[in-house]
Amino acid sequence: MGGSATGSSSSSSAANFYLALLVAQNTSKTLLLRFAVSGKPQFLYSAAVLATESLKASLSILWLLAHGGSLRAIAAFLRDEWKIFLRVLVPAGVYNCQQMLEFVALSRLDAPVFSVIVQSKLLTTALFSYLLLRKQLARKQVSRALMPL
How far out from the chain centre does Cα 49 lie? Predict the structure, then answer.
């Protein structure tokens, strides 16, 4: 029984560590974006979103290569699973529009107001998954969704 308490303790500290990283990432993203759009921005919002998504794709490919994948395997996956690629085009497009609108919103709102609005996405997603998809949420999930409020 002593082993499970240690495992629980280490998983709890790992969860707290990742939560702290997430808070740092969200805070720094908002503050950096706010700094970038203050005044008259010298870049297109769409170019910034494209650069960010390209960086994510590059890092994902590097991670796959570092963990035993190959460019040939990636190409084969994309060739074999093209229907999945087509299905995610619409959500990916909506996500990219949302990212561009975040630049616009951040240029017009204070950083704390923007952060609260962005955090409300989690709550509305949970609400719509319950109402529209009839997905049952556990009490713990509901409390986590309400935590930012």
Answer: 13
**Tokens 């997430």 belong to which residue?**
22
Whether the Cβ atoms of residue 148 and residue 119 lie closer than 8 Å to each other? yes
C-alpha span between 52 and 102 (Å, rounded): 13
* CA dist 13 → 8, 136, 146, 147 (Å): 9, 28, 22, 19
CA distance 62 to 67: 9
Report DSSP state, residue 43: S
Q: Which amino acid is at 99?
A: Q
Report the pLDDT value the prediction gives residue 1, as an integer from 0 to 100.
46
Spans in the chain with pLDDT lower than 70: 1-9, 144-145, 147-149
CA gap 71, 34 in Å, rounded: 37
